Task: structure prediction
Amino acid sequence: MSDIFDPAALVRPDLEELIPYQVQVHHNVIKLDANENPYDFPPSIREEIWRELGNHTFTRYPDPVAGELLEQISDYTGVPADGILAGNGSDELILTLLLTFGTGGRVIITPPTFSMYEVHARIAGARTVNVPRKGNFDLDVRGVIAAAKNPDTRVIFLCSPNNPTGNATPPEEVAEILKNSRSLVVVDEAYQEFGGESCIPLLMEYPNLVILRTFSKAFGLAGLRVGYVLANPAVVRQLLRTKQPFNLNAFSQLAARMVLAHREEFGRLIELILQDREELYRELAGLPGVEVFPTAANFILFRTPLPAEQVYRELMANGILIRNMHGPGLEQCLRVTVGRRDENRLFLEKLKKILGL
Ligand code: PMP
Result:
């Protein structure tokens, strides 16, 4: 027996091909890669958070179910508090959903879509089944329903508006899938505040519907990691089995409450982002050789005549960070987040140069 201890020999075999999630941290760049809110946090809300923090004792564990925050989310969404679960970002909740319902079963994913459904399915020991989107990135509703007929199907992930393509799925199409499937249908509405119709009204009718939301995009709290699930209370009760007891720290609970208490301030920022999205879309669509895809989110997917990697690198050399999405169905595609007006202008200016326009 060798005396060199090799932890890789002990790791779960099904994790061998899982590559750790890698994010390169770049300083002093214009950051248009992660669909965050580009504006500074409103100073009045920031001050109120600091004031509230002064009264806080950090020696005690946080409220395990973030009860006060749930009441605020209930007020914001109209969903009763017993149908809400808060988490450490919606990423954590994707894993909680898969650990509760997915392990050992099949999970349907509709690529191109958000990569964490596949990653967390693997971590949870679930098998993923791909039902690719159509050429225009609309859902293949018939294909999803057919794939869901397999009795091992536990969860179906739909993302609307979809990351990275930007298009939203009409609630009628989601309802069609809900009606024809006995599995859980998760609609990830991370970008819903920017567009697309919410599936919240369907919650009353379909007990197998789960909606995922986040504070990381429109509400500017990506750094504090707050997301939530909206679902039937019976589904929430099952999720409580696998949730970490103190998953959402006291600071983040408080900040998220303050954000919702002042949500009209974020409404103004969202309006600005939507205006600038239209401007950026028009400008991109006007560039010869560039194909731009319609979006209901705070980002835009586009295809360039040059290799995506080259465009990505040359923008980076100019201090602008976007996402290279090149891959199956997304050949030569990149995704740019709508930034502040000056950032969008600089991005367009540099992109034109790179494309020789
Ligand atoms: N869902 C989608 C579609 C996303 O794009 C993201 C963030 N990239 C998330 C969920 C995760 O968000 P959070 O910060 O709440 O974990």
Notes: The longest helix spans residues 263-285. The mean pLDDT is 96.
